[in-house]
Amino acid sequence: MIEISELTKRYGDTTAVRTLSFTVRPGQVTGFLGPNGAGKTTTLRMLLGLNTPTSGTATIDGRDFGSVPRGLRHVGALLDAQDVHGGRTARAHLTALAVSNGIARSRVGEVLDEVGLTEVAGRRIGGYSLGMKQRLGIAAALLGDPPVLIFDEPLNGLDPEGVLWLRSFLRELAAEGRTVFVSSHQMSEMELCAEQLIVIGRGALIAAESLTEFAARGTGQGVRVRAREPRRFVSALLADGGEVDRAEADAARDLFTVTGLTADRIGELALRHGVVLGELTPLNASLEQAFMELTADSVDYLAGEAR
After folding, report:
1. I want to staple 279 with a disulfide (CB 3.0 to 4.6 A). Which of 198, 226, 231, 297 is the partner?
2. Is the dihedral of CA 282, 288, 294, 296 positive or negative?
3. What are the two backbone dihedrals, phi and then psi, of residue 44, each rounded to the nearest 5 degrees?
4. Cβ contacts of 264-269, under 8 Å, gap ≥ 24
């Protein structure tokens, strides 16, 4: 389990992370989201003992990771797939990590096979594509068979097959009871593999909840309705507490969007008022829409801004 408590990191007059607190539990994939410059990587580096907090704590299973000997047996992490010696082969790189962490050399072949790099294990890493380096970084994280896994943008550079593989693999790891914490900008992928979300902006916590709860905060929810007698039915919906886009209602269109009422309730009202419905479709807010709305005030770099 990962626990962040009142974590703060300052660089001179700049506060990268401010009094941040959250918990990441085992058995599920937890996504770590935030705009560029939100403090995600800084938080992960403090969690792994690579940066020292100005104040607060970041612990893994109740311990400061920097004090844990042979760390790969406890935590596997991928922060930067490019940060690896290009002159070594993948097998040599993983073997060095295994020996330094007291891990059996047999694990090298096992993790290479898990990530699909067995056939290129003898090639120098400098000739690898970014996607291959990502796979190598994941292999290194898995080397000690740790209960906690931390990945920073692991999808970068992966081809569609690699994305599909990693999506399923992350869920499999979580299903084994591991703590899986994934920082990513790819909302569509987080929507497909994460169950819980930690969302930050300008170093502060915005949300720590399930993906479903977070997405529900977006304004895209509602019910799409097609009715034969729209004006009469809209009046009934409004009287029952529903809301209909004014332009749609005034135009008396047969297709309109209702908020404030469930699809079941709209169906009941249609039956009561003898209105024939041609469509009744619940609209769910997407993770991306909710993210854009709830982090709008935390974006430091906005395309198209006046200069």
Report:
1. 226
2. negative
3. -65, -40
4. 265/240, 266/223, 266/225, 266/237, 266/242, 269/233, 269/236, 269/237, 269/240
Residue among 146, 142, 136, 138 at smallest CA distance from 107: 142
What SS3 class is residue 230? helix
For 280-289, the pLDDT digits (tens) are 988 766 777 7
Cα angle value 163/168/171 (rounded, 5°): 125
**What is the model's pTM?**
0.79
Q: CB–CB of 227/233 below 8 Å?
A: yes
CA distance 45 to 69: 17
Q: Could you tell me if 32 and 17 are in contact, meaning their C-beta atoms sit under 8 angstroms apart?
A: no
Structure tokens at 95: 């073997």
- For the segment 125-168, what is each residue's pLDDT rounded down to a tens digit? 999 999 999 999 999 999 999 999 999 999 988 999 999 999 99
Strands of the sheet containing 28-33, edge to edge, are 75-78, 148-152, 179-183, 28-33, 196-201, 204-210
How many angstroms separate the CA atoms of 284 and 290, rounded? Answer: 10
CA distances (Å), origin 151, targets 42, 70, 134, 138, 139: 13, 19, 10, 8, 12
Residue located via tokens 């058995």: 27
HSE (side-chain half, CA atoms, 13 Å) at 1: 8
Alpha-carbon distance 148 to 74, whole Å? 7
C-alpha of 234 from chain center? 39
Q: Do residues 21 and 4 make contact, with C-beta atoms less than 8 angstroms apart?
A: yes
What are the contacts of 169-174 at 24+ separation with CB within 8 A?
169/138, 170/29, 171/29, 173/29, 173/149, 174/26, 174/27, 174/28, 174/29
Nearest by Cα to 117 from 129, 106, 105: 129
3-state secondary structure of 190: helix
